[in-house]
Every structure is written in structure tokens, then in C-alpha cells.
UniProtKB/TrEMBL annotation:
UniProt name for this protein: NAD(P)/FAD-dependent oxidoreductase
Keyword Oxidoreductase: yes
Coiled coil: none
Lineage, broadest ranks: Bacteria, Pseudomonadati, Pseudomonadota, Gammaproteobacteria, Cellvibrionales
PANTHER family for this protein: FAD_NAD(P)-BINDING DOMAIN-CONTAINING PROTEIN-RELATED (PTHR42877:SF4), L-ORNITHINE N(5)-MONOOXYGENASE-RELATED (PTHR42877)
Gene3D superfamilies linked: FAD/NAD(P)-binding domain
InterPro entries linked to this entry: FAD-bind_Monooxygenase_sf, FAD/NAD-bd_sf, Flavin_mOase-like
Keyword Cell division: no
Keywords for the protein's UniProt record, in alphabetical order: FAD, Flavoprotein, Oxidoreductase
UniProt source species: Candidatus Seongchinamella marina
């Protein structure tokens, strides 16, 4: 069947970094029937949600942009959250998307019937579309710690992704649970306040210090309107990140040795007190948990008003936190820097593919996809930044650009009539995931630690190969990996427009 004449209708779910990108790329490809649903009242995804003090991106800002839109306004090498939020708002607005997005409207139901997707939104609207792209992000479901008595605390408590800006921390006794990337940024910032800060660390982390260059007005002017210069800067940073951090965690022995040396030296040089240094020294390989880029955390943890508690938490009580040695730390505020549940993806959406099979049933054992974005049984449904898409310490924007181009190639195959529907076969998914598993043993993520990279079976849900390999494998869709017979259910397709 040839769909050449058809202008497919596409629903993009989410107007964060990858949703904005997908909408722009769909339009560039001449696809105009696009509905964009966004649960919140503005674009930005993670950068809209995370407003905690110190929020910044630890990927250099000049490579944390779309390849088609460099930005001369960054104030620092590691851009602050509000600047990144403004960048995405600016790109959405310049591309005329802001007026097209259905804000405050999330997707509740998404069912595949009769060859199309039937959507019901939180406002009760019904849409019928050919394709759905879930650009719903990875780290957006706050993970609350499973600590006894969590709800019994009488003071103020919040997760870092839901920062309570009404509470002034000055003069307060504050406890932060967690020492991940988020916690390190929060602690660096709030430790400067006149507060009494206790950091509850369960597992120490390896940190690399990269100086955070400040861009002067002169620096910014030199780059203003110079897209080629900005693109060159972006490529330079990307080259460095790929050949240092990313290689270090995916089997590059020399890079791993260098990064390990740098992390250990950083700790040795930054923390003079041997007792504190011992508390901060991990017992697992560097890069096993996500490497933290911070030039401020070690200074922060050594401030006079900051105390590092390494005794495990037993419970949370009305007055504060009780550790397993029975000691109670009285607190006014508890901040949960406890990360996210990364395996929910587009859920809790009621997503059902062919024959009414739900995503919960499909992923009951494991969240897996073909090339991170196609799920057998869910034709014409794509998941951006799905299972195994994260690339260690690299820009998710670059990954999404490769994915969006690949999705467009698949839609084009559908338009050409090469595929009756874009649905990866079960075999292709299995073999792709076997290929991923085969690459994991040489990565740093199996270095004997717990992290959000690991799924319930302890398998890293990451891309274990190089960036070049990622790009290469998304160049040309392998037709044999897709279903070629149109199941009865795929009929009838809408008549040609
Ligand atoms: P995370 O890396 O998952 O860290 C969660 C922290 O909470 C860990 O220290 C963990 O300890 C602790 N924790 C969780 N449950 C606990 C419990 N029951 N008791 C005690 N401690 C508990 O989360 P995150 O810091 O929010 O970072 C998540 C990811 O977001 C990062 O890896 C990164 O990819 C991204 N991020 C990026 C940036 C950036 O600059 N680009 C900034 C922030 C976040 P254990 O280690 O013992 O589990």
C-alpha cells in the first residue's frame, strides 16, 4: 500500500527538549498535522520541573543545544537551569510552537485500533492519529525513599524536583538525603546560606572537577549571531566529552585509567581531613554510578555549617532523622535528593497496542525496546530516549537528534508503502537487546555498585557502545527488523488525503 499522498497525523507527547525537537523536525519534513500535548503550562520538561538552588547542566552548555540553534547567551560553561529553560522557550517560540502546544493537557489513554491510535486527553478530548511519539523523558518521576516514618515528619519536606521556594532555609536545621548529581548541586548552593546542614550519605560518589568558566559580555558578543562558530564550539566540546567521559565508561581502558586518576586525585587534593576523606571514598570503580562533575561539592562539604552523616538512616520521626545507631538528628527541613524512577517512561498513561495489550503487560518483566524506540505490538508508536538510550555523561540532545532523524526515516518508509505500519518484530527486539547485553560486560556500570542505570534485574539500561556506533546504526533502518504483513487489525487505513 502506498501512503505517498498522505500527510500522516502525528501526536507528540511532551514539550520538553525531545518533544520540541520532534515537532520541529516533523514540520521540516513537511508533516503538518501535528498535535503536541504537554501536561504542564509551559515547555521545558526537566528544566521546567527542576528549580532547586544550584540547578545546572554538567554537560558543557555550548554542546547542550540543538545542532541547528547555538546560543551565545550562556553565562557559564555549565549553564544554569533557568538559562536552559529560557533557551528551550526561545526555540519553541521562534519555531512557532508555543501557540500550537496543548498545555495543561496530558495523554491519559492511547489505544491502537483499526490501524490508528485513539487518544483521550486529561481534558476529555479525543484524537485519532497515525503516529504517536512519546517524548516523555526519562528522569521525571521523583523517587521517594522507602524510609520508615517518611510521612511522620512535622517539619517541611520536599523532593528536589518539587522545590518549595516559600521556605527560607536561613537559620534552619536542614537535612539532605542523597549525594547524587542533584544533591551535589543543591548542597554546594545551600551550604552557603546561614543554615545548619546535615548531609545523609548512603554511598559515596566519585567526582571530577571541571572549572566552570564564566562567559563575559565580551565572550558573548564575540559569538552573537555566529552560528558556525557556535557549531564549531559545540563540536569541540562533544569531541572532548565523547573521547574522555563516554569512552571511559564504555570500555576505553586508557580513558578509564585517566578519569579514575583524576577522580581520586580530586578527592585527595580537595579533602584534607583523612577521616572525612575516608567517608567520601567510594569502594566501587570510577564511573560505575554516573560520574559527578562538580568543582564545588568538596568545598561545600567542608564548610563549618555542614556535617556529613554516613550512619545509615533507620527512620524518619516527627522531629527529624534517626540513624541506625539510635542517634536522632533534629531538623526543620528534610530535602529528598533521592533521584527518579527511570523505568516508568511514558507511564502511568494507559497505553495499549495491538489486541488491547497494555504496556504494563508488555513490560511486566523488563522495559525493553528495539533501538530504544520501537516496541513490538505497538505499531507506529515511538519512544524518544527509551530503554538503553542514555549514553554516559553525554548530551541527551545529541541522542534525540539522531533518534528524531531515524523516526522520520521510518515514517518515510511507511509513506512509501515499504512498511504497512512501523512495528519492530519481536525477534529484532530480542536480538537487539542481546547485542546490548553483550556490550555491557566491558562497561563501568557493572563495576559493583547500585545506580539508576540498573534495572530490576541489575542490568544497565544504557547504550554500551561508542557514540559513533550509535550514529552509524541509526543511519539506515533495517527493513527486515520490521513487520511486513499488515495484520487484519491494521486495516482499514484512512483513505488518501
Ligand atoms: P541519583 O543519582 O539517583 O541519586 C540519588 C541519591 O539518593 C543517591 O545518593 C542515593 O544513594 C540516595 N538515596 C536514594 N534513596 C535513598 C534512601 N532510601 N536512603 C538514603 N539515600 C538514598 O539521583 P539524582 O542526583 O537526582 O541524579 C539523577 C540523574 O539526573 C543523574 O545521574 C543525572 O543523569 C541527572 N542529573 C543531571 C544533572 C546535570 O547536571 N546534567 C544534574 C542533576 C541530575 P545511593 O547512591 O546509595 O543509592
Amino acid at each position: 500500500m502506498n501512503n505517498q499522498q498522505r500527510n500522516p497525523s502525528v501526536a507528540v507527547i511532551g514539550a520538553g527538549m525531545s518533544g520540541i525537537l520532534m515537532a520541529i523536525k516533523l514540520r521540516e519534513a513537511g508533516i503538518t498535522d501535528i498535535s503536541i500535548l504537554e501536561k504542564a503550562d509551559k515547555v521545558g520538561g526537566t528544566w521546567r520541573e527542576n528549580t532547586y538552588p544550584g540547578v545546572a547542566c554538567d554537560v558543557p552548555a555550548h554542546m547542550y543545544t540543538y545542532s541547528f540553534k547555538g546560543n551565545s547567551h550562556w553565562s557559564h560553561r555549565f549553564a544554569l537551569g533557568d538559562e536552559i529553560q529560557s533557551y528551550f522557550e526561545g526555540v519553541a517560540s521562534e519555531n512557532g510552537l508555543a501557540g500550537k502546544i496543548r498545555f495543561n493537557e496530558s495523554l491519559d489513554q492511547c489505544h491502537f485500533r483499526g490501524g490508528q491510535w485513539h487518544l483521550t486527553t486529561s481534558k476529555g478530548a479525543q484524537l485519532v492519529v497515525d503516529f504517536v511519539v512519546a517524548a516523555t523523558g526519562i528522569l521525571h518521576h521523583p523517587a521517594y525513599p522507602d524510609i520508615k516514618g517518611l510521612d511522620s515528619f512535622n517539619g517541611e519536606m520536599w523532593h528536589t524536583a518539587q522545590w518549595n521556594h516559600d521556605v527560607d532555609l536561613r537559620g534552619k536545621r536542614v537535612g539532605v538525603i542523597g549525594t547524587g548529581s542533584t544533591a551535589c548541586q543543591v548542597i554546594s548552593e545551600i551550604s552557603k546560606l546561614d543554615c545548619d546542614l546535615t548531609v545523609f550519605q548512603r554511598t559515596p560518589q566519585w567526582l571530577i572537577s571541571v572549572p566552570d568558566k564564566h562567559y563575559s559580555e565580551q565572550d558573548k558578543t564575540a559569538l552573537k549571531g555566529k552560528q558556525r562558530k557556535l557549531a564549531a564550539l559545540s563540536r569541540r566540546y562533544a569531541f572532548i566529552m565523547r573521547n574522555t567521559f563516554s569512552k571511559a565508561v564504555t570500555g576505553g581502558k586508557l580513558q578509564h585509567a585517566l578519569i579514575s586518576w583524576a577522580a581520586k586525585r580530586n578527592l585527595r587534593k580537595s579533602v584534607r581531613d583523612p577521616e572525612l576523606r575516608a567517608k567520601l571514598t567510594p569502594d566501587y570503580s570510577v564511573g560505575c554510578k554516573r560520574l559527578i562533575i562538580s568543582s564545588t561539592f568538596y568545598d561545600a562539604i567542608q564548610r563549618d555549617n555542614v556535617y556529613l552523616e554516613t550512619m545509615a538512616i533507620q527512620s524518619i520521626a516527627e522531629q527529624g532523622i534517626v540513624t541506625v545507631d539510635g542517634a536522632a538528628k533534629e531538623l526543620d527541613v528534610i530535602i529528598l535528593a533521592t533521584g527518579f524512577s527511570p523505568f516508568n517512561f511514558m507511564r502511568p498513561m494507559d497505553l495499549r497496542g495491538r489486541n488491547g495489550v497494555s504496556i504494563d503487560e508488555t513490560w511486566a518483566k523488563k522495559a525493553q525496546a528495539y533501538r530504544s524506540l520501537c516496541i513490538p505490538g505497538f505499531p507506529n508508536f515511538f519512544l524518544m530516549l527509551g530503554p538503553n538510550s542514555p549514553i554516559g555523561n553525554y548530551s541527551v540532545i545529541a541522542m534525540s537528534e539522531v533518534q528524531s532523524a531515524y523516526i522520520l526515516k521510518l515514517i518515510e518508509l511507511w509513506k512509501q508503502g515499504e512498511l504497512p505500519a512501523v512495528e519492530a518484530t519481536q525477534e529484532a527486539k530480542e536480538s537487539y537487546n542481546a547485542y546490548l547485553r553483550a556490550g555491557m560486560s566491558k562497561t563501568a556500570w557493572v563495576g559493583g555498585c547500585q545506580s539508576w542505570y540498573l534495572d530490576g534485574d541489575g542490568d544497565p539500561a544504557m547504550w554500551p557502545y561508542s557514540w559513533d556506533q550509535w550514529v552509524k546504526e541509526h543511519q539506515t533502518p533495517v527493513l527486515d527488523d520490521f513487520v511486513h504483513e499488515a495484520p487484519a487489525e491494521l486495516e482499514p487505513l484512512r483513505p488518501a488525503a
